[in-house]
Design brief:
alpha/beta, 42% helix, single chain, 8-stranded parallel beta sheet, two-stranded antiparallel ribbon
Length: 264
């Protein structure tokens, strides 16, 4: 088992100075680097005061400059908000800056509120269609010259500039919840990012069942790495539990509120 860190620049009050928030976030990333964590993940969010992350590549570039070992992942780049050529180049540039430490995670997006502002008229539930078209195009761009004539993007001969240091490309991850998304991940050779958070462990087991079903439906496909996000706290004495538990409850309550009610 390997441990990873999922971290957003979260501001729970407008009174919090963004400069202090940036320093605090970087310190946590550096602690994870020194502590032997495998990957740190940065999210993409727009126009949400709670989750500050308009471009995960900017944050990861900053962290790359202040760490030495930990790998740097997007969790996730939201496929409907990107053009394939631009996204392929961003991944390549971060891989160059980080000397080959990129883990590329892609997903279909979280909140309808963001879609209403970033991709007006598009339903969040249809975001996976963009991801499904995007993945093979990215792999082709990282390989060399390619053209594309799809439903959502069309372009003449182009290639990724720069290309990633890692060959043929950085490890690929998909944020997967529905059975169809697991199928997309397995078909495209992607690892799995799942988000059980504080829900019962039975939810993790249901995600594993979806993975097994996708593997059974795609004979010969490689078994991906399966990662799930859970709240975890380590402390020396029982009386020290109050601070991390209280923080986790506060963050989880606000996240679930966004998931349920951030419609417009």
């Amino acid at each position: 088992m390997k441990f990873q860190l999922v971290i957003n620049m979260e501001r729970h009050s407008p009174e919090v100075d963004l400069r202090d928030l940036e320093r605090h976030t970087l310190e946590m990333v550096q602690m994870a680097d020194a502590g032997g964590f495998a990957i740190v993940w940065a999210a993409e969010h727009h126009a949400l005061e709670l989750f500050i992350g308009p471009n995960p590549f900017s944050m990861l570039t900053w962290w790359a400059a202040h760490t030495s070992r930990i790998r740097l992942g997007t969790a996730v780049a939201v496929a409907p908000y990107w053009h394939p050529i631009r996204l392929a180049g961003e991944v390549g540039l971060l891989d160059l800056y980080s000397r080959g430490r990129v883990e590329f995670g892609i997903g279909s997006g979280a909140f309808q509120r963001e879609f209403d502002r970033m991709a007006p008229g598009l339903k969040q539930s249809d975001g996976h269609l963009y991801m499904e078209e995007m993945l093979p195009v990215l792999k082709a761009l990282w390989q060399g010259d390619t053209t594309h004539d799809g439903k959502y993007w069309k372009f003449p001969e182009a290639t990724a500039v720069p290309k990633p240091l890692q060959k043929p490309h950085p490890p690929l991850w998909v944020a997967a919840r529905s059975p169809h998304t697991y199928d997309i991940a397995v078909k495209n050779g992607c690892n799995i990012l799942s988000w059980a958070l504080s829900r019962p462990f039975s939810e993790v087991e249901s995600y594993k069942e979806r993975l097994e079903a996708a593997l059974a439906a795609n004979p010969g496909a490689a078994r991906p790495i399966f990662a799930t996000m859970r709240y975890t706290a380590v402390y020396d004495r029982p009386e020290q539990s109050e601070v991390p538990v209280t923080a986790a409850r506060r963050q989880m309550a606000r996240f679930e509120t966004w998931r349920r009610f951030a419609r417009t």
